[in-house]
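Bit of a strange request maybe. I'm writing a small parser for structure token strings and I need a real example to test against, not something I typed by hand. Could someone generate the tokens for this chain?
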Amino acid sequence: MAVHTPLRGLRCFCVAAECLSFKDTARQLYLTPSAVSHQIKQLEEQLGFSLFERQTRAVVLSRQGQQFYQSIKPLLQGIESTVQQFCQQQREQKVSITLPEFFASEFFVPRLVGWSELHPDINLQLETVKSRSDQGRHTDLQIVLASSKPTDKTSHQLFPISYVPACNPEWYEKLQTEEQSPLEQVPLIVHQARPWCWHQWADQAGFDDFRPKQIIQLDSMFSVARAAQQGLGVALIPLPISAAWFDSGSLVRLYEEELRTRDHYYLIQHESAEHRPEIKLLVDWVLERFQL
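Reply from user aminoacidic:
Good idea to test on real output. This should exercise your parser:
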């Protein structure tokens, strides 16, 4: 007649054989001592011999119990390892990435089209920050804007960035008919992380007598672009990440001259993420579509 021995009884025995205490075994397995004693007794009845010698304040393995433990322990470990392996294959795969807010909405997300179809089992979590001075929480990957390549972690250079003066079409048409310099007639908008950006642009563009009427600083690049689009004034807009605003006609370049900086976008990969295949898939995706 076949004998059916529950795995939980074998696991209970192995833990008890290592603890030599039914009380400690019960604590590890979240059982009661009586439940542990019952499972051990049930296993002994199936085997036909005693696994433990019960003493007044302790239990010790019998000779046959020691032999049975040495035989069953590696088999039980193999079963647990196999179960764990299959659980890991079915676990939720998630990759988190921190990136600038404007970069995310205008450049990153549009280029994710097609990712879900190729990798339906990998979930993405995007954390955005308004400027480079903001500290996002720890994530698997980061995209940062920096004037030099980060050297303390694995990083990949993506592309440089430049800034162009832009306004909405209504302001553009009006400023073309004015004799006075446009930059002396309307407010100039800039991200507060670059308060001297307009003066740098004027130096590079050759505006020797640069006297802006008013400069307005905003705390996010999206706010800068939106303010220019709504007619608040002329803004310095980053390219290429804001190309869609110009392609749609929401913004028009007021001058061809660009402010060129040493800034580049970089993809940073933490060392702890190097051995996760789902992260490598996203890194490869970004490098293929974002290196300009």
